[in-house]
From TrEMBL:
Naturally occurring in which organism (per UniProt): Clostridium saccharoperbutylacetonicum N1-4(HMT)
Coiled coil spans: 162-222
GO biological process annotation, one example: xenobiotic detoxification by transmembrane export across the plasma membrane
Stretches assigned to the YknX-like beta-barrel domain: 266-345
Transmembrane portions of the chain: none
Domain of life: Bacteria
Keywords from the UniProt entry: Coiled coil
Identification of the protein by name: Multidrug resistance efflux pump
GO CC annotation, single: macrolide transmembrane transporter complex
SUPFAM superfamilies linked to this entry: HlyD-like secretion proteins
InterPro entries the record matches: Beta-barrel_YknX, MacA_alpha-hairpin_sf, MdtA-like_BSH, UPF0194_transport
Tagged with keyword Transcription regulation: no
Localization per record: Cell envelope
Length: 349
């Protein structure tokens, strides 16, 4: 009975050994690739590419979608157009406000100039020729009144004609007196108040125009933002909206993946960092191209540890083994890559 059990055990052992041996010969694993170069530091990682989220800066309805997933785009290519009819109407309205404001500003400046001239006249007094002109006006009004008084006494004209002539004579007399004596202090003060009022009107209109110009600038920016363009070269790897869909400010419309500068981020144990230098040339193998070897360069070594790959144990000397990020840029890459592809980086001995 014991002999029979021993035979069964031996047969099972042979079968298991044969099965595992077959598996190891038919499958090429990452561990095997690493173990093939025992003296070199070889680390498994993944191809990394920069993703850029394309977000809308204005709310509205998607009018046009110019791309589809998988399309290659260049920086500045139009990706989406958001309906901007409302913004166009607002732009027209604000432009009309600015035009009207400029008209009001011209009128306010004219009123200010007239008030300033009147104040200057009141402060400086009338010139000799202005006095002569005022006297001539008074003399004419006096002759006219005297003539109409005679006609009125003869009952040849109505009293209203005489009253009108008397009023004109009084105005001409006052104007002549002012020209001779100069403006009264209260007249100068009133003229100054008119100038200040005119200056206030000019400043108020200028403020309104400035505010309208700011609104116009904002509208123009939003109109420009209605056309969404690619911020850099890449591939559309995600498309989130369709024509007719309403979007809100900040909503993600698509993702552009920058494919022309692939890199690899390796996590290197601190015990292996002595084998890594900045600007070091490395070789890279990518299983997708199993018969080829690519060149890369170390462009960054993180100053701070990312995480502990091993916790303190009796086996590693009672201390945590930390990991540091090392960035590799692929050089002269002429093969199409996809983000996430497996890569093996050989740092050498």
């Amino acid at each position: 009975m014991k002999i029979r059990n021993a035979v069964v055990f031996i047969v099972l052992a042979i079968l298991i050994n044969g099965f595992t041996g077959c598996t190891s010969k038919s499958t090429l694993t990452g561990d095997k690739l690493v173990k093939e170069s025992k003296e070199n530091l070889t680390i498994q990682s993944n191809v990394d590419m920069t993703d850029t989220n394309i977000n809308t800066q204005i709310p509205g309805e998607i009018k046009e979608v110019k791309v589809k997933e998988g399309d290659t785009v260049k920086k500045g290519d139009v990706l989406f157009i958001i309906n901007s009819d409302t913004l166009g109407a607002k732009q027209t309205q604000v432009k009309a406000q600015i035009e009207a404001g400029n008209g009001q500003l011209n009128a306010a400046k004219a009123a200010r100039d007239a008030a300033s001239a009147k104040l200057e006249l009141a402060q400086n007094g009338a010139r000799p020729e202005e006095i002569d002109q005022a006297k001539a006006g008074y003399d004419l009004s006096k002759v006219t009144y005297d003539r109409l008084k005679v006609l009125y006494d003869e009952k040849s004209i109505p009293k209203s004609d005489l009253d009108n002539a008397e009023t004109q004579l009084k105005l001409a007399s006052d104007k002549y007196d002012i020209a001779q004596k100069g403006a009264r202090p209260e007249d100068i003060k009133a003229a100054q108040a008119l100038v200040e009022q005119a200056n206030g009107s000019v400043q108020a209109v200028e403020g309104q125009i400035k505010q309208a110009e700011g609104a116009l600038k904002e509208v123009n920016v939003n109109i420009n933002n209605a056309t969404v363009v690619a911020p850099e070269d890449g591939v559309i790897t995600q498309l989130n909206v369709e024509v007719g869909e309403l979007v809100s400010t900040g909503m993600q419309l698509a993702v552009v993946t920058k494919t022309n500068e692939p890199s690899i981020l390796c996590n290197v144990k601190e015990t292996d960092l002595s084998k890594v230098d900045l600007n070091q040339e490395v070789s890279v193998k990518i299983p997708a191209y199993k018969d080829e070897e690519f060149k890369g360069k170390v462009v960054k070594i993180n100053k701070n540890a990312d995480f502990a790959v091993k916790r303190a144990t009796n086996d590693n000397g009672e201390f945590d083994i930390l990991s540091y990020g090392v960035k590799i840029e692929l050089e002269d890459m002429n093969k199409p890559l996809r983000a996430g592809m497996t890569a093996f980086v050989d740092f050498g001995k």
